[in-house]
Amino acid sequence: MSGIIISRPEVDTGHTDVICSTSIRHVVTVRNAALQQTETLIRQLAEISVLTAADIGGKTALDRAMKQDFHCGCWLMEKPETAMKAITRNLDCEIWRDLMQRSGMLSLMDAQG
For residue 71, what are the CA distances in angstroms to 10, 62, 63, 80, 103? Predict the structure, then answer.
């Protein structure tokens, strides 16, 4: 038989800090409302682009929104299907990070790592 000894993990019973409570229902409700408004904005920008580019030759919203000699990506100017996937992913990552930060879990995980 091998000499491997399995020990039980140590439990810190002296820990007295309080972990903040967060209403997940509230977080999800606000998240969904923000995503819905974002998608509406993307569709409105696309409609504005169609109006100005086709009817009056004013180019698209992206063309008008860019600073001269400054180019960067903006998900608001992409197709809604593509943009919403990226925006949702980014928002969810930030929400998760904020929840972990506020609950103290990031500090706990960093201390354990």
Answer: 53, 10, 10, 20, 38
pLDDT in tens, 36-48: 999 999 999 888 8
How many degrees, rounded to 5, is the angle at CA 43 between CA 64 and CA 88?
105
Run of H or E residues at 38: helix 24-50
> Which of 47, 41, 42, 43 minimizes the C-alpha distance to 60?
47
pTM: 0.66
Check pLDDT > 80 for residue 107: no
For residues 50 and 47, give the distance between their C-alpha atoms in angstroms, rounded to a whole number.
Answer: 5
Task: Give the relative orientation of helices 105-112 and 80-103 as an angle to the nearest 10 degrees.
Answer: 80
CA distance 84 to 38: 8
- Distance separating alpha carbons of residues 76 and 65, to the nearest angstrom: 11
According to DSSP, residue 20 is labeled: P
